[in-house]
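REQUEST ID: PR-0412
SUBMITTED BY: lab tech R.K.
PRIORITY: routine
TASK: structure prediction, single protein chain
INPUT:
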Amino acid sequence: MAIGESVSEYHYVFISPGRPRERLLSDISYACGVDLRSASSEFVDYSANLGYAAVEVELSHEYEEAYGIPFEAYDSLLAVRDFGSDLVRQENLARAIFRNLASLERYSLALVLDLQVLLDSAIPRQGPGSG
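STATUS: complete
OUTPUT:
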């Protein structure tokens, strides 16, 4: 592990709009390639185990702007967490999920590392919720 590298760094995809929820959850399942399951956690609403990583969905959040990233503009988020703390593999997975969601052209998206670094963003083709 490199100096300054933290095993608790996660990649996040912030998503808007967060409704209709059924379509959002279906789209996230598509983007991940697995079905989401309801989670029994205080903060995580749905999750999926991809074998080497977890995807955890929060349908709402209370993050506000930080590091120039307007988190409050996004309704929902998903976190990607690699079980082996392999940040390269985790980022590759997060980018793949981000690209799959972006390809639907329905959502405003922000791909973020550790809630501090904006890695990528996307906007819907015809405005939020279209398609």
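NOTES: The chain has one domain: 11-116.
REVIEWED BY: pending
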